[in-house]
Amino acid sequence: MGDQVKLSADGADLEYPVLKGSVGPEVIDIRKLYGQTGKFTFDPGFTSTASCESALTYIDGGEGVLLHRGYPIGQLAESSSFMEVSYLLLNGELPSQDELSNFEYTISRHTMIHEQLRHFYQGFRRDAHPMAIMCGIVGALSAFYHDSTDITDPEQRKIASHRLIAKMPTIAAAAYKYSVGQPMLYPDNNLSYTGNFLRMTFGVPAEEYEVIPAVEKAMDRIFILHADHEQNASTSTVRLAGSSGANPFACIAAGIACLWGPAHGGANEACLNMLREIGTPDRIPHYIERAKDKNDPFRLMGFGHRVYKNYDPRATVMQSTVREVFEALNVQDPLFETAMRLEEIALNDPYFIEKKLFPNVDFYSGVVLSAIGFPTDMFTVLFALARTVGWVAQWNEMISDPGQRIGRPRQLYTGPTQRDYVPLSQR
Ligand code: SDX
């Protein structure tokens, strides 16, 4: 018999099995708790709840460790590519050269979107937030791909996954083009996944677009840093939507909607706006005090994390990527100095030290994306583009689990107990 934990409830002594993973916290299997005690666990925000079993991504928040199928994010960011990391997340192992070439070829053959889908953009205002457009367009994909929405068919699941990974750059670039009134470009499959995206975003029909290798590499690395991250809010949204049997396009649209929030993926946009509001380093102390003031809703965007109570390893890589892009484009941005000074001051402030608040993946990403040329409202779109591979990998892992059931949490009810209806004439 494996380890057990004991629980005494209403005079009964109960035991629940402890399940061990390959690494990380063990879990207490409480699936029989309600049937045996008539009680639920209570964990709003899921601070102590494992919602599933997964073999994709492991995070040790205390040590600042992030592994994708066992490989450290720092090594993947340094030596891998987004396409290779996508293959790894989807298939569990690093690909051979042939496997990688075949995967890249397959993805490249799904980069176009249905011509009628381009008309959907016309329904939006030009100043619509591109995340609103992403929610609409990705959700609408299920109206075009009925041949890959049977989630019980592994082949259709694979095609839908490839379509989503392949089309996100095209959809995202088109959202940007629509916002600036420029023509949408078709994919050029002679380019890399990331080079294709950069050209569709910044290229114009009137001239050849030259992909700058250093920018392509930096963008590709940024995609790697955002690919997957265990059971974060948007991934949990995708899993919950998928647990009802919803088609994968609808599930990813749900994930995009959740990612948009400023507490989650929207923090990269909010962080750069915050840095712009702070402006110069001499104004940092005022904002640090505001962040510490319980009566002030202001928070340091790009700081803090539910899991990382040490440095977010992605932030480290992102900071060095800022320098690379500045050098490649021969640009500077005083906000980078402000960001580094803000980090230095915050990390030496007792409040941030006591609450273990460190920069997260969103703290520096805005500075580098802005240097590459993206407007602030495109930052979360880029996060969604990259996280799509994590979402579809997590969705596939869940759907292919024969024991999967619909997710249906319960509650602690604190509303009125039963009472009789009072006719209007008597109220
Ligand atoms: C992402 O989950 C993931 O993996 C997400 C992500 C991914 O890859 O999917 O990593 C991507 O979403 C990164 C996080 C981006 N969000 C932000 O940068 C927004 C700013 N940060 C926070 O709002 C906050 O830190 C969260 C949402 C990230 C985490 O929230 P928690 O875990 O619920 O923590 P909390 O809000 O309960 O904060 C704990 C304490 C609080 O003080 P007390 O009530 O204990 O006195 O720390 C304080 C908070 O007030 N605090 C902050 C702060 N973050 C937390 N104070 C000032 N500034 C901040 N940024």
Please provide a written account of the structure:
Strand 1 and strand 2 (12-19) form a beta hairpin. With 427 residues, the protein is mainly α. The chain has a single domain (42-411), classed as Citrate Synthase, domain 1 (Orthogonal Bundle). The strands form two sheets. The protein has a three-stranded antiparallel beta sheet. It has a three-stranded antiparallel beta sheet with strand order 4-5-6. The chain has helices spanning 33-37, 73-79, 82-91, 97-108, 115-122, 130-140, 154-180, 193-202, 213-225, 233-243, 248-259, 267-278, 284-292, 313-329, 334-347, 350-354, 361-372, 379-399; strands spanning 4-9, 12-19, 27-28, 57-60, 65-68, 71-72. The structure holds s-citryldethia Coenzyme A.
Describe the structure concisely for a colleague:
The protein is mainly α and 427 residues long. The chain has helices spanning 33-37, 73-79, 82-91, 97-108, 115-122, 130-140, 154-180, 193-202, 213-225, 233-243, 248-259, 267-278, 284-292, 313-329, 334-347, 350-354, 361-372, 379-399, and strands at 4-9, 12-19, 27-28, 57-60, 65-68, 71-72. The protein has one domain (42-411): Citrate Synthase, domain 1 (Orthogonal Bundle), CATH 1.10.580.
